[in-house]
Design goal:
With 734 residues, the chain is of the alpha/beta class. It is built from 30 helices and 14 strands. Belongs to the glycosyltransferase 41 family. O-GlcNAc transferase subfamily.
Amino acid sequence: MFGAIWGGMAKLKVDQAMKRAKAHMRKGEMAEARDLYEAILADFPKNERVKTALAELSGPVKVAAPAKVAASGAAEPPAEVFAKLSQAYQAGRLQDVHAMTGQLLGQYGNSGKLWNFRAAVSSNLNLLSDAEQALRNVVRLQPDMVAAKSNLGVILERLGKLDEAEECYRAVIARTPEFAEAHNNLGNILKSAGKLAEAQACYLNAIARKADYVDAHYNLANTLRERDLLEDAKQRYFKTLKLQPKLAEAWYGLGQTMAALKSLPEAVKAYQRALAVKPGYVPAMVEQLREQSHLCDWRACDLFAQHAAQLGITGDAALPFPLLPFEDNPAHQLARSRNFAKSLLPPAAPVSTIKPTSPEGRKIRLGYFSADFHDHATMFLMAGILRHHDRSKFEIFVFSYGKKKDGAQRDQVLDNVDQFFDVRDMSDGDLITLARAQNLDIAIDLKGYTRDSRLEPFAARLAPLQISYLGYPGTLGCDFIDYIVADPVVIPPEQRAGYHEKIIYLPGCYQPNDNTREISTKPMTRADLGLPEDGFVFCCLNNNYKIMPTEFAIWMRVMKKVEGSVLWLWCNHDIAKDNLRAAAEKHGISGDRLIFAGYMPQSEHLARLRHADLFIDTFHVNAHTTASDALWAGLPVVTLAGKQFAARVAASLLSAVGLPELITDTPEAYEELILKLAQNPDMLAELRTKLAANRQTKPLFDTEGYTRGFEKGLECAFAQRQAGEAFSDIAVNA
């Protein structure tokens, strides 16, 4: 009995190894296949199957020379030739098969079957032009073979010949409407062109003809998500995963859908499932970290620490933005951005793609690109620039690819630009055509790697000069972005090496502000806001994802020493609130001493900030717009100046408003200063008085002066481009 069981187990082990080895060979991974065969022979040295497979893997292909064509003219090689071709192909010896078919086609050039073999091996070797020509011959010789026409479409698609690929798929569908793969592939073409509704119809057609077609279900789910049909997308991902539970990409897509539906715990679970079936799957890991940070689930810090040295730096690219809160490391941010740009964005068109023209006698044509031309933090900051641009020198174009959201900020944008283009439904190609038709001199990206970004058109060159500004606090690592706008505080000399772009250094703060922002006069008390009438109110209304355990521990230690104090946080998710309260309890602070604020209209938000005593900042990603909000409302901000751009923004703001004494350099100094101010009301009152005065006189809130400096930086950069000079850092004088 035991011998029979043991023999069965040995056979199973050999079979599994053989299957894995053949899978490696199909991918061209010969060394891995050889290692597997040798390992199994070490355990089972007499196994003839493995010996034969290893010998075939190592030896050259040997096929008898084909007999000369008979007088009648043989159209096909002998059956044994195809048998040996198949054997070599299955063994993964693709180069040998490619060479053999080349020799055989010299004699059997009218063999559609041989040309099809040639196409398959060329495709696997990524010799796409060779595969295209082979398939064209198959189609010519065997016009009824619709699969070949469909495969030709696939190769044309890989070659970027999308119009020709579309023609192939449509021809297949016209001839054989039941060919599900052609419907699916046509959907892919239409989806890439931004024709989402048409793509959706194609995927439904494919599924109608092949109900268990996993690719079509998955592609349909992605399309529904992109169309913001989120409930439908969720159900379609469920259907896909029922058919293929180990499809990590579908778990990832489900996670994105649940996040968009604000079901963050469910999103985290989906990403964890993706990682369970595909360990090391970088996109899922990044999104899991993102959503856990939004939930203040600091187990994410341990996950990040395990992978920090490699995540997005070596191997697969990682979206950089969600990782900013987890570490303060400009070198890592640069490496991640470069890897992402190189791996996942189109190659950069040469700078010379669009020749600059002299602006003499005309205005410089300036284009802003964003998804946020509505009531959004970026527009609260930028409204003043748009209002104060020197229209005798600049012509302003806006390209909006976000959802249409009417409101006061949208109205301000429309009132203060020359041309407004809603390009949300445009393909990248159409957007490029439209933007170039405006003859822009400078194109400015306002999104970077944040949500809803759209950098792909910039890779093709929209203007002779391209700039990253305001929306993303760090380097993009892209060859097609020429400059980043900064200042000497956010990018000090010792951190210059962490930035791929050349830098336009503005004289004050890189961040604009609008000094006409209204602060509501609506009656509002602490009690209305859920705050105690007495007691010190520490405030941090940053997004939850910015809060990390290090600063939170400091806040708790300070609160222990300031009796009756509370911590006022912004939060719109119950699980995040529970996690923060639980973290406070672990530090010995009652969870009831954490007060949570929700959304308010901008003017009322500014007014409520006046009811706090001190704004205490987060570390790796500071308060940005929120710090400007606090200072504009008259609330002092204490920050720790870190290393990376995102960790130095509040320091830049405080420098520009004349309050450098609120900038600290170490966690210990940060903690000490917060406690000192909380225990010395006179010192804090003096700071408030100083801020109130500086608010009117210092550069931070001088909107018109800022705009002139910003324009000067743009003019200097464009002058370099116009003169054909190499780009270099620019320091704008005050």
